[in-house]
Write a structure and sequence with these properties.
Helix content: under 10%
Distance between the termini: 60 Å
Low-confidence stretches: 6-24
Number of domains: 1
Shape: globular
Order of helices and strands: HHEEEEEEEEEEHEEEEEEEEEEE
CATH topology: Maltoporin, Chain A
Mean pLDDT: 90
Strand content: over 45%
């Protein structure tokens, strides 16, 4: 039999142990952040750094402007990237990402440029609560949409705040607010000033409920409202939206990786002469690993996108892609094939009585990657891209061949 003193000692030690475990508890999202901090390759004092070299494309493109009158060139996009982590007593987590990238064209000198991508966030982690706030600033010249065949510079400034409450090991709730400001350069494209047409601000308020089916799969329900304000007072793009989504998130270490997100959106334009949109939307990308030699890839995106054309404030874009990845020679090599289709539908004709515009895009690509690290591969890819437009002569095609690095081998 234990005496009174021994019982008090056991109770005290149990209380201390319980308090320690409680203090060390964390939400599932804080655990993912901590694991990223722990796995970083370089450790410099309290800082953990994960460096990378990004080589998006080094090769040849037969039609760099995706134009009916093709302009060919050799080009590359490359640069370093850094993920920097700092953790203080497992309660404060700081993450910064920086990637300057140079775009080089051999003949088309006016397209040579530096792009820069930066984002960062600070998280406060408690027993069942994770509070995160952060932002991003990207300054780049790219082909931002299927409509714009040139590369206008766009400055993107964003900020957000989120609060995650984990009620139990399976159930958690998250709320988020965010604002994004898009500022396009003032440049003429087929008689349209892109800066005046597309520069705008987006505000979102969203909430999500998670239910963990197991440690690697989470089911979620999400609701979101958005508001879109254009800087040009004469713009017809001012609008707001209400969306509802459901789907699954998969762990990056499981046999199923990525996200399935499907929902319904109501998009209301404030211009009285333009129709609204109601319908299916989604943003999904999934990799399914079957054994050691085969991976199946699939993606689906459907949403409302703002248009540069005067008669259509927006268009509905839909893209799906699929293909296998086959590992050979003791997984030293990976063979990829991807087939992709894109369709853009416009809600109003270019002029009264005309047929509604529809753009169709097709992509066939193949690639072979050689493993140069545990998760890194150097690849050679090639493909054929085509576009068909039903209302005027804007059909085009391109062929490309290039080297690139992948960090998802």
């Amino acid at each position: 039999m234990l005496g009174a003193r021994e019982k008090k000692t056991i109770y005290l030690l149990s209380f201390i142990l319980f308090s320690f475990l409680l203090a060390q508890a964390e939400t599932w999202k804080a655990r993912e952040m901590r694991l990223a901090w722990e796995r970083a390759a370089w450790k410099i004092g309290p800082f953990h750094l994960q460096p990378a070299i990004l080589v998006k494309d080094v090769g040849y493109d037969s039609n760099i402007y995706y134009h009916p009158e093709a302009v060919s060139d050799f080009w590359l996009t490359a640069g370093p990237a850094f993920n920097l982590y700092l953790m203080a007593k497992r309660k404060i987590i700081v993450h910064l990402y920086e990637s300057p990238q140079y775009v080089f064209f051999w003949k088309t000198k006016r397209e040579r440029t530096w792009n820069n991508y930066f984002n960062g966030d600070i998280s406060l982690s408690f027993n069942k609560i994770l509070f995160t706030f952060g932002g991003n600033y990207n300054n780049a010249r790219e082909r931002w949409s299927y409509e714009i065949d040139i590369r206008p510079r766009r400055k993107e400034k964003g900020m957000f705040a989120s609060l995650l409450y984990q009620k139990s090991s399976r159930v958690s709730v998250e709320g988020r607010v965010r604002r994004i400001d898009y500022d396009y350069e003032s440049i003429d494209y087929n008689g349209v000033n892109i800066g005046e047409r597309l520069s705008h601000r987006e505000d979102y308020l969203s909430g999500r409920i998670y239910y963990g089916l197991n440690p690697r799969i989470r089911y979620f329900l999400e609701g979101e409202i958005g508001r879109f304000d254009f800087k040009n007072p004469a713009s017809s793009g001012d609008s707001h939206s209400q969306s509802f989504y459901t789907g699954f998130e998969f762990s990056p270490t499981g046999r199923i990786r990525g996200q399935i997100k499907i929902g319904y959106k109501k998009f209301d334009t404030l211009a009285s002469d333009l129709p609204d949109f109601k319908g299916l939307v989604g943003e999904s990308s999934v990799n399914l690993i079957l054994g050691k030699l085969l991976m199946l890839r699939g993606a689906y995106v459907r949403d409302v996108n703002f248009s540069i054309w005067s008669r259509s404030a927006y268009y509905v874009g839909q893209t799906w892609s699929a293909g296998p990845s086959i590992y050979i020679f003791r997984r030293k090599f990976r063979l990829d094939y991807t087939y992709s289709r894109t369709r853009n539908d416009y809600p109003v004709p270019e002029y009264p009585g005309a047929e509604l515009r529809r753009d169709d895009y097709t992509l066939n690509s193949v690639a072979i990657y050689y493993r140069i690290g545990k998760t890194v591969g150097l690849g050679l890819s090639a493909g054929i891209w085509t576009r068909e437009v039903n209302v005027f002569n804007w059909d085009a095609s391109r062929k490309f061949l290039g080297l690139n690095l992948t960090y998802d081998f």
